[in-house]
Amino acid sequence: MAGNVPVTQSLDDIYPQDALDIQRKRWSKLLSSFKDAYGRPAEFVSRSPGRVNLIGEHIDYSLYEVIPMAVTADVLLAVAVSPANGTPTVRIANVQSDKFATRSFTLAQDGGVDIDAKSHEWTNYFKSGLRGATELLKKHAVKGIGQLNIDILADGTVPAGGGLSSSAAFVCASALAVMRAHGQETVDKKELVELAVVSERAVGVNSGGMDQAASVFSQRGSALYVGFQPELSARTIEFPQTHTPLTFVIAQSFVAADKHVTAPVCYNLRVVECTLAARVLASICGLKDLPDDSSPLGFSLRSFHDSYFKKKGAVGDDVKDFRSQLDQLVHIVDNYLPQEEGYTRQQISDLIGTSVDELEKRYMTKFPVRADTFKLRQRAMHVFGEAVRVLKFMDLLQSPTPSNEQESEELLKGLGGLLNDTQESCRDVYECSCPELDELCKLARSAGAYGSRLTGAGWGGCSVHLVPQAKVEAVKKAWEEKYYKKHFPDMDAEKLQDAIVVSKPGSGSTLFQVAGRESL
Ligand code: ATP
Ligand code: GLA
Ligand code: MG
Description:
This protein is of the alpha+beta class and 520 residues long. The chain has three domains: 4-54 and 75-206 and 507-513, Ribosomal Protein S5, domain 2, CATH 3.30.230.10; 246-259 and 403-503, 2-Layer Sandwich (Alpha-Beta Plaits); 267-379, Up-down Bundle (de novo design (two linked rop proteins)), CATH 1.20.1440.340. It is 42% helix and 17% strand. The chain has helices at residues 20-38, 123-139, 166-181, 189-200, 210-217, 259-262, 267-284, 301-311, 319-336, 345-352, 356-363, 376-397, 405-428, 435-446, 472-487, 493-499, and strands at 7-8, 44-55, 67-83, 89-94, 103-106, 148-156, 223-227, 233-237, 247-252, 343-344, 373-374, 451-455, 462-467, 500-503, 510-513. It is globular, with a radius of gyration of 23 Å. The two termini are 28 Å apart. The relative contact order is 0.16. Adenosine-5'-triphosphate is lined by residues 75, 94, 100, 122, 125, 154, 156, 158, 160-167, 170, 257-260, 456-457, 461.
């Protein structure tokens, strides 16, 4: 998946045929609004999509593999640049100006910018992309940093807080825009992902790397297998040919999951719980002086995993061995982390041989959390179990093409069963679902889905369902009648249409050159 972000002058390279008409209109409107707002044409558009995660939920920050794919919905940033003959200034507006107010801010001489993670401010997502890109530009010794005025108009169609990673789409598009604004027409995909993963954390959510990888690396028509250890890697996965084509349907719960607001008791807390579970397990198993890894808090369950088996003399990374290692780890958790009720700060400090003060300073200061107990047992159980499900899912996707309808049906049921198991684990063990997501899953299964689960961070947001094509309409109808009309009786037809998307895997980040084009 190595290589540069594609540069194009054609929307055909970005969108599937059936989306082109709508996209042409949208892009034309964006470019003409840009001219109206800033009195000059946009030079380029930087574009990055949202993603749906098929399987591997809440395990990317423990550095286990995940299988997401990009969706068609995306963030577009139309941009024009000019030399700053004074203080470099960024002006940024949004086509949804009622929701996202126009802002302008100045840059420090070294191109730096302040980000107040305490305020929930949309332009923080741009600033974090800008900050990451500036670091990369410096690394490449690019000239002209902190000497530009940049005008931007944003247009995002990924529902914000809807579990399809509008945030990563925004940060990746922003970082890409800043690179291009500084004359970088060739942007290395891996470098872009790495900078976006780290820089998105500046908004206050200590997230993993799945979303940015999916947004940048994805290719139309394929899902993506993303790994984080020993380093970031991604490869495309073709879907098998089944008698009824694999159809993934995405359904919004319309329960807004604002990760920034709930982070101290939801997302960031889970990151702390997983990290502390790894620390405690390492300590119990006598693993000392382990180096930091690339996970958000510097030590992950995956690093514990690798060090544990290395100490035991395991060699090679054969998939069969890996799966059996994960099964063994489930037993270790069962034996050594028995407390269902969770662990207090004092208990954890005693187990890893540190003070409560040190523990808080090291793991709970930069991204504060609010909790008296930490459910190490349940979180580790979910992570190891989910990592096994990803391997099984991958095996099924790569199994030989089914030769008849029955084999095909078995394959689809196998994939669906894994999605259902993930949902159960997210609901009961990781506690990141909510009643509305559970309800959407239950309704879909009763109407014929092979498998259903939440996707993304959870606690609201989106769900994903593997549905036989012949049953898509029945599933939609069940949701409309028994979920949307029940919970949102005033919902208009347009919103209802947006609620459910039959998703085809979309393409990743792209730079679009506007200059010199007569029409789209
Ligand atoms: P998840 O991370 O669960 O997949 P998500 O990425 O959509 O879902 P958040 O990580 O909470 O949810 O990010 C949502 C935030 O991203 C919004 O509150 C907003 O600040 C910013 N954002 C997303 N889309 C846009 C947009 N079109 N215009 C401006 N800001 C946006
Ligand atoms: C959010 C984060 C990702 C990942 C998912 C859960 O989308 O941004 O890094 O952790 O939640 O799988
Ligand atoms: Mg997000």
